[in-house]
């Protein structure tokens, strides 16, 4: 097994990509992709990168899951929402919770995971869906890198999935936080691999 030392971080082992991956596209809802949203930003390059990933995954019969934050009442994630009041726009039935139209050909009732918190795993049925499909590894993309992507990556590892994060397919309103989060995930919880390598991986399955 190859090991690598990243700057002053711990020695890490090289992990082999799994044979049964799934894509977790985190929070590509209008609330996060629309620059007019208080939660949004300019993420067009990330949207295009994800379309490339999701198209390649679908062609290789790799399952794809989308997450969206949805609230039905004031009690759900009340402390989180008090800390970040902009989350209150994410009400069920609103335009803000819908997955971006760029992915309309791929998102459906069965592969959209509704959540109240940053992680795609916390209090959702994502883990059981992945287990039912015998998934062994996750390709994680999404918004934002330092928030919901990182939380999903950490929880993915804690469910013992091999996690890969694709930097071109993740975005953040804070660029230093984006870079630091990618560094931190690669140093401890995941492999950060370029878009081109992930596409080649799908084609090899």
UniProtKB/TrEMBL annotation:
Q: Which UniProt keywords apply?
A: Hydrolase
Domain named Isochorismatase-like: residues: 22-193
Q: Which Gene3D superfamilies match?
A: Isochorismatase-like
Coiled coil spans: none
From which domain of life does this come?
Answer: Bacteria
Q: What GO MF terms are annotated?
A: hydrolase activity
Q: InterPro entries in the record, alphabetically?
A: Isochorismatase-like_dom, Isochorismatase-like_hydrls, Isochorismatase-like_sf
* Entries under PANTHER family matching the protein: ISOCHORISMATASE HYDROLASE, PEROXYUREIDOACRYLATE/UREIDOACRYLATE AMIDOHYDROLASE-RELATED
- Specify the protein name: Hydrolase, isochorismatase family protein
Taxonomic source organism: Glaciecola nitratireducens (strain JCM 12485 / KCTC 12276 / FR1064)
